[in-house]
Write a structure and sequence with these properties.
alpha/beta, 44% helix, Rossmann fold, 258 residues, single chain
Length: 258
Amino acid sequence: MTDESPPANAAQDASPSYRLPATDQAFLLGDSMRGVRFLMEFTKADEILRAWGVASTIVVFGSARIREDGPPDHVRWYAQARRFAALASEHGGARDGDGRSRVNVIATGGGPGVMAAANRGAADVGAPSIGFNISLPREQQPNPWSTPDLTFRFHYFAMRKMHLAMRANALVVFPGGFGTLDELFEILTLRQTKKMRPAPIILVDKAYWTSLIRFDLLLDQGFVSRADLDLMEFAEDGAHAWRLLAETLCGDTTDGSR
């Protein structure tokens, strides 16, 4: 018999293979776990939204570059987005709680510009609102008006888009650039192909949208049908957008915009 001590196991203890998979960041961030990361991004937000009783949303898109103190058009669009979100939050059911589902909760991309204006409008009337942020090379910071418990961050655009679309009772789009157009046409395509439940799509400021996109040309060339174009309506401002939605979403012609 020998009384030699066993060799130290420090190397085994420190080996990456010995780490629990759930605590091994290198493993979790590897290519093989991409599907798991997709599932995690879906489940975390879904679980929190369910806990808050969020049954449906009104999604507000628009440029992150619009500023409250910017050029006159920017000032106007910012104010209209804030006004729309306040009206929708006050009269649409977002403030309901205490065991009841919250409906028509304002949901944005969580960043600055129109997104901040919409989250701010909800906060103005004491309603919760959602910010679905995305990690970008130039880090996006969440605006200070989305409800902290409902402020999320995603790595995958696809999962962020899914959360934006899956509870949406309506989409309200203010002027914007590439990102806004991407989200608009994503929802239009889902509606056109019936991959999404019926939901009104309101474009605010008809002059902007019809000067930017020749929707009539798409129809003239046979690329879309009249029914496809009927998926959209135009509103002149935020209060008008809420009037267009109020009866459809709330079954009430009292829109609170006056």
